[in-house]
Amino acid sequence: MARPETLSGWAVERPGPADSGPLTAVRRPLPEPGPGDLLVSMEACGVCRTDLHLAEGDLAPHRPATVPGHEIVGRVVAAGEAVTAFRTGDRVGGAWLRGTCGTCRYCRAGAENLCPASTYTGWDADGGFADAALVPAAYAYPLPDAESAEKLAPLLCAGIIGYRALRRSALPPGGRLGIYGFGGSAHLAAQVALAEGATVHVLTRSARARELARELGAASVGDAYDAPPEPLDSAILFAPVGDLVPVALAALDRSGTLAVAGIHLTDIPPLSYHRELFYERNLRSVTANTRQDGREFLEAAARIGIRVTTRPYPLSRAPDALADLAGDRIQGAAVLLPDERFRPSG
């Protein structure tokens, strides 16, 4: 596996609206892997809404000029001296969760996603909007050689976070699930729910997303503010729109649960206790994921033959991918692919 000499990619220099150019093309020395790191040559990197939030300033940068991207599929080109689980040439995935302390009460209880010392790819360290990246081996996932890198990339955050959101929604066996927003994460979580016997109702403003939901087997589709045709046992809010929280809560049956899946949400309007929360309805947030979530989801995705809808972009067009995501012009998930012509100066 050839080792590149430099790293070419995109960094968030000045956060702002996606169409204002928050990404800057950069060329940097290739990073050296530490004892527990993998240097990965990028085969594909998904474009997540969290990347958009970081680029637009909804999430405060943790460090200057960070390379975003945390749905990394690539090949190991070098490994640190302490790495034993991977070797050169292996295909691996780098995901959002990058590190935890391993000793706090949350880590010891299996809730490492709540670790106060947790770090994240593309936020605390450079990510996959580049032709190479460092991935801590302890947080990397082995990936199959036979699958398309483009189709694997969205599984590493959109899929894993959607899976955790599904579990947080406390969907009972054979239950009725409402999904609000139907992008990269939602269309994967819906397939897991359908494979497990759920009835899925999709509520989204995008006509193309409603068409995809029908193709995947949704029992009904409607606008984001529509009422589903029956009360819901569970719901997941994927759209980062706080106004939809009372809408989704009101659609729940007694004792139903709404899980809010995004890392960023606009303000939630005042809730009516009797209209939206009474009858023991539950409102839950979703915070990152554990590595166990990742392992379980990747196993489920392989088992059910999950269908991944993607729109590819060459790495040189990463700004266009972010702008299209901001404008809801992408059905499924955007994915960046290697671009040999992309060579920024620097």
Automatic annotation (TrEMBL):
Residue ranges constituting the Enoyl reductase (ER) domain according to the UniProt record: 18-336
Keyword Metal-binding on entry: yes
Cofactor(s) recorded in Swiss-Prot or TrEMBL: Zn(2+)
InterPro entries from the UniProt entry: ADH-like_C (IPR013149), ADH-like_N (IPR013154), ADH_Zn_CS (IPR002328), ADH_Zn_typ-2 (IPR014187), ER (IPR020843), GroES-like_sf (IPR011032), NAD(P)-bd_dom_sf (IPR036291)
Entry keywords, A to Z: Metal-binding, Oxidoreductase, Zinc
EC code(s) of this entry: 1.1.1.1
Pfam families documented for this protein: ADH_N (PF08240), ADH_zinc_N (PF00107)
Region (Disordered): 1-32
Domain of life: Bacteria
CDD domains cross-referenced by the UniProt entry: CAD2
Reaction(s) the record says it catalyses: a primary alcohol + NAD(+) = an aldehyde + NADH + H(+); a secondary alcohol + NAD(+) = a ketone + NADH + H(+)
NCBIfam families from the UniProt entry: adh_fam_2
Family according to the record: Belongs to the zinc-containing alcohol dehydrogenase family.
Protein name per UniProt: alcohol dehydrogenase
Organism expressing this protein natively: Streptomyces albospinus
